[in-house]
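retry 2 of 3: previous attempt timed out while embedding flavin-adenine dinucleotide. Reduced batch size to 1 and resubmitted. Inputs unchanged:
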Amino acid sequence: MSQTRTVAIVGSGPIGSAYARVLVESTPHVKVVMFEAGPQLTSVPGESVRNIADPDDKARAREMSQGPQSGRYRESLGIPAGVVVEGMFTARQGTHLLDFGGPGSAHAPTFPAAAAATNVGGQGAHWTCAIPRPHGSELIPFIPAREWEGLIETAESLLHAQSAAFADSKVGEAIRSILDEEFGAELPAGRGVSTLPVAGDPQPDGSMRWAGADSVLGPLIDPESPLAERFELRDLTLVRRVETDGGRAVGVTVEDLRTKETSFVAADAVIVAADAFRSPQLLWASGIRPAALGRYLTEHPVVICTVALDAKKMERFATEADLEHELERRAHNAADPVAAVNRIPFSEPGHPFSLQVMYAEEPPFQLDPAHPAAGNRWGYVNVGYGMRKRPRVEDGITFDDAELDYRGFPNMTIEYELTDVEQAEIDEATKRLWRAGETLGSFVAEPRLLPNGSSLHYQGTMRMGDVDDGTSVADPWSRVWGYDNLVVGGNALIPTATTMNPTLMSVAIAVRGARRLAAQLSGEAGAAAAAPDAASVARSR
Ligand code: FAD
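retry 2 succeeded.
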């Protein structure tokens, strides 16, 4: 029997969890130790806080995710929960701003809404769970199309994808019908108005149990599963350095945040999946500094509005009884902002945007009771377009060895600019947003561009490439160029200009990297073929 191989994973979000799952399931010789700087929020590691029905418990879990530990739960680096306007402005609940303005704050005047979550499950404990597939030029050109299809299917299984979530909602259907009347004729076949795929499991009462890192980890956190014996999660453990020797990673130096003790943990491979800012920062702090590290930062700019649905228009497609039924379903978890979600996906050349339309019975902010649309019987939609940002070396993070941040890492300065190319697409999408709003009802918040960083979908800072020409950090299997056992994961790997929510794509990229690493670690050339396919992952949910 061959020797057990230890893999150290930095970060417990959906991507670190995907690596853990595929590695442990692929080869019996791998043991995974996952390090997470933040605390575990509930008894289920990595669970979505959206599943917590009690508003106080939910608020507590969110506050625990918002920064270094102290205070009642921990000192928040985000904005206080009472001030947060969920789904509309930054910072979102459960996240903390990088440029929070206090001692040790990052500097991000041109990307002010940049945020992170620090907790078991990462941002994946707070996410909206929208998982559209990338399409056309959003795809990575050097990953073969057929392989990509299989990777996406596995990623969808890991995330418990529901392509028809809320498809039975008559309110959702009415919204689609209205949008289709306005836009349908302009859209190519198969890329028209449709439901937005989401990650979660529909419950018998019509609500959803939203997926988080817990869903991705699956049997690894099931005490009844033998696989759980080869998985260890250490929360409140900050990885300070990835240790290397020549061209190999040899382990990690970690700080136990409870005891403040520092120790070295040896590993046969290291995976860094600590988000698109803190992963490159950790590599930099570890002396691993490829030219493209931290550069080519992109996100999709967001224009957004809120609309009170027009009763007359809605009543053409849905009845009062349909509305009653919808409100009844929503009452099961009233604090969950996610309900019937529709979209118009990205298509080229005519619609290089992603439109997301989220129904809610209340607006996402306090509406003056005197406002004519207050208490609107048919409810509201938050409508937002995501646009492309072309990758440029000028946009990104610089690290300062002489100025440490609040965690003691080389501090970050983010430089970012939207060019005329982006502005033209933003202008075009904004026009369509006005059309979408006017066709659905009346504005309670008119279309506007959110500050840079608001998408929470940060990409490109550890981009993958097919040649080591200085414009990428990782090879096509997510290994840092020059290191065959140092793997990076997350949205930061995405090298293309995308308009959609990136987590599904990043999980697919992670599955590819994990299969390759599993083959490498087991020393069997054909081991990649034995990695779980979508069907076997689905069976073992
Ligand atoms: P993360 O989930 O960010 O996890 C990284 C983890 O690494 C964190 O827990 C962090 O504490 C830990 N870490 C950092 N540094 C260290 C260190 N040195 N040592 C140990 N641990 C460390 N995406 C979508 O696709 N669809 C959506 O609908 C969507 N909605 C979102 C809504 C909100 C409110 C938020 C906040 C995010 C949303 N996202 C969405 C983004 C999505 O959550 C991320 O794409 C996803 O979580 C990225 O996974 P990850 O594992 O790469 O990183």
